Amino acid sequence: MSTPHNEANKGDIAKTVIMPGDPLRTKYIAENFLSDYRLVNQVRGMYAYTGKYKEKEITVMASGMGMPSMGIYSYELFKFYDVENIIRIGSCGSYKPELKLFDIILSEKVFSESNFALTFNNEICHITEGNKELNSIIENTSKTTNINIVKGNTVCTDCFDLYMTDVNKFLKRVPKDFNPISAEMEAFALFYIAKILNKKASCLMSVVDSKYIKEVATPEERQTGLNNMIKLALESATF
């Protein structure tokens, strides 16, 4: 079985999927962290590899950028490939001065102005959340591996927040008690799809830019400099 966007056969995809946005990051993870891995999808260059991490079968698959792309791939993985858990690993911008480059954030709730939920499911919904059980596993794993994380709420935007003409006006539209610590572009779609299909999803992010830091991570650093986040996701996936 395949879909218009995934050539993998049923059985080629593991029950737990680690999902970066970047196809090259997917390739990097397979080559550096998995054993006995094989390429199971390359349609549209959206690589998916299935292999073993500490004897546990895991798939690493790219989602692409933005909610529409994440919505397509996560829906198909959950609906047609019997995936039970997706852990998104990605980059984010920081909205808190105490957060430094490559700090790792575990998303609790996500706010989006998008009408993704209305279009997909005829529901007016702008806040959704990660799976508490999966988040708890990640939090406990962070303690046993000594990989520090920061928990908090996230905004999920339809455009790259660094390119907004006035990000402060956007932030004023976020519910006052939401208090976001970071921004990214995929988690709302992932969490909402998981909720509708009764699956589990979490989102880990590494800070690569900030309102309070002049430095911005380079493309090379974004691709390969996120090893602690990758290790945390893989260790959590062995539950």
Helix and strand topology:
Blueprint: E1 16-20, H1 23-33, E2 35-41, E3 48-53, E4 56-61, H2 67-80, E5 85-94, E6 104-111, H3 116-121, E7 127-129, H4 132-145, E8 150-156, H5 167-173, E9 180-184, H6 187-196, E10 200-210, H7 219-224, H8 227-236
Parallel strand pairs: 1-4, 1-5, 5-10, 6-8, 8-9
Antiparallel strand pairs: 2-3, 3-4, 5-9, 6-7, 6-10
Helix pairs in contact: 2-6, 4-8
Which features characterize this protein?
single chain; alpha/beta; Rossmann fold; five-stranded mixed beta barrel; 239 residues; 8 helices
DSSP strand content: 25-35%
* Total beta strand runs: 10
CATH topology group: Rossmann fold
CATH architecture verdict: 3-Layer(aba) Sandwich
Domains (count): 1
- Mean pLDDT, to the nearest integer, reads 94
Q: Indicate the percent of residues in helices.
A: 25-40%
Q: Termini separation (Å)?
A: 28 Å
The biggest beta sheet reads: 5 strands, mixed, barrel
Radius of gyration: 17 Å
What overall form do the CA principal axes indicate? Answer: globular
Strand order of the largest sheet: 5-9-8-6-10
Q: H/E series, N to C?
A: EHEEEHEEHEHEHEHEHH
Count of alpha/pi helices: 8
Task: Output the CATH class name.
Answer: Alpha Beta
Low-pLDDT runs: none
CATH superfamily: Nucleoside phosphorylase domain
Structural class: alpha/beta
Tell me what you see in this structure.
There is one protein chain. The chain has 239 residues and is an alpha/beta fold. It has a single domain (16-236), classed as Rossmann fold. The protein contains 8 helices and 10 strands. The chain has a 5-stranded mixed barrel with strand order 5-9-8-6-10, surrounded by 4 helices. Strand 3 (48-53) and strand 4 form a beta hairpin. The longest helix is centred in the N-terminal third of the chain and has 14 residues, at 67-80. It is globular and about 45 Å long. The model has no long low-confidence stretch (mean pLDDT 94).
